[in-house]
Amino acid sequence: MVPHLLFAAVVALNAGAGGQVSPLQARIDAAAAGTTIDVGPGRYDGDLVIDRPLRLVGRGRPLLVGSGAGTVVRIRASEVTIEGFDIDGRGGGLLTEDSSGIHITGERVTVRDCRVRNALFGIYLHAAHGAVVERSTVTGFTDRSPGEQGSAIHVWNTQGFRLVGNDVRYSRDGFYIQSSNGGFIAGNTARELRYGLHYMSSDDNVFEDNRFEQGAAGAAIMYSKRITFRRNQFLRSRGFGSVGLLLQACEDVTALDNLVADNGRGIFLEGTLRARFAGNIVARSDTAVVLYGSTRDVRFDGNAFLANLSPLDLVGRRTDTVFDRNYWSEATEPDLDGDGVRDAPYRLTSVFDHLRGNLTAADLFARSLTAAALGLAERTFPVLSPAPVTDPHPLARPPALPNVPRPDRGVAHANVAGLIASMASAALGAVLLLGGGRRRRPCLGDRARAA
């Protein structure tokens, strides 16, 4: 067994000069593999290294306060469980050293019911294959810019991980996932961040029942394959260049029953191959879909597009993306034969939307009479249109979509919640859409920045 003094030296070396060792270190050094160590209420100052398989269980929410020089808890063994602790990083350490509340390099480690604050990175998985992080909270810094802190939960080169039921806010990114495959990410909430989900070069991951809210992007997914999104919420990403769900250079993506609402741009696709969007609601965004000509073999069917300022910005002159049998709240053609489909195709693009997709400065005029006049001229003289995109069978009534999540009252403005609830009833949906029009576009609600 390695002596306690050597562990102190390791902690000090990894955390930086002056690292203080936790009083719990001696109990860990003396424990046999597989032991459960119960820790009672109180405050425990100093950094901690776990080098053997064991369970460290907090009773009465003990507080682990780091030295302020680096990571508070380093897990270097496999088959470790840590649960029931509050952890305070004291704002110290270096981003270049991945200073974290909990830093894990062992395999099959479980972090459960922990609350991390004041740490540069909250929970860091570094080649921690089979790791589970569940029912934990990470709160970053409200007085630091995104570049001055790390991600709430950071996953690097980790295979077969699970992130379930966590709540993160005020960090650079909520969940940063890179070079990590076979993950399951479910029931998490990420709020008031740069990106709720930032995702690079990671394949075969499933995202279910998460809420990404109030950032520059709800989710930014890049260079990844075989990604599935089900019943997630991408809400209130506002500001220059903001987007609910961004896919860049991705392949084989499936998005089912998601809510994308109150964003600058709802869905953004660039260089993406083979994707399907079905049964989603895209609502009250400036632009519902931004689509680059480099995107191929993408299909939108059975979705509801509600009260967006523009249905589509097409960047490029042509696209093979298929829009079919979606509901568009702005479509006006009747359904005289009563088959549930409007009697004429719905045209998504106008000459102004083409200009906006290819000339960013055109956004300055998005709500102007000029934009309306260009749209009218293009409909009257369709030769002006460089790239027509249509839904040949637009639905006359909104589909029910019972699996799409409804925003809770703490998030959603009552008018938006009412609009989405109306999807279950065609008659009520028609009343709301005709009554609300496009004159007033309330946000999903204003949330106070609680500590």
Mean pLDDT: 85
Largest sheet: 23 strands, parallel
Classify the helix fraction into a percent range: 10-25%
Radius of gyration: 25 Å
- Overall, the morphology is elongated
Alpha plus pi helix count: 6
- Oligomeric composition of the shown chains: single chain
Structural class: mainly beta
Total number of beta strands: 38
Beta-strand percentage range: 35-45%
Distance between the termini: 43 Å
The unreliable regions are: 1-18, 354-366, 410-414, 424-451
Would you write up a description of this structure?
It is a single chain. The chain is mainly beta and 451 residues long. Helices cover 13% and strands 37% of the residues. It contains 6 helices and 38 strands. It has a 23-stranded parallel β-sheet that branches. The protein starts with a helix and ends in a 15-residue tail after the last helix.
Topology:
Elements lengths: L3 H12 L9 H6 L4 E5 L3 E3 L2 E3 L3 E5 L4 E3 L7 E3 L5 E3 L2 E3 L11 E5 L5 E3 L2 E3 L3 E6 L5 E3 L2 E3 L13 E4 L5 E3 L2 E3 L3 E6 L5 E3 L2 E12 L4 E4 L2 E12 L2 E6 L2 E3 L7 E6 L2 E6 L2 E3 L3 E6 L2 E6 L2 E3 L3 E6 L3 E6 L2 E3 L3 E6 L6 E3 L2 E2 L17 E2 L3 H8 L10 H12 L9 E2 L22 H8 L4 H11 L15
Tell me briefly what this model is.
The protein is mainly beta and 451 residues long. It starts with a helix and ends in a 15-residue tail after the last helix.
Features:
451 residues, 13% helix, 6 helices, disordered N terminus, mainly beta, 23-stranded parallel sheet
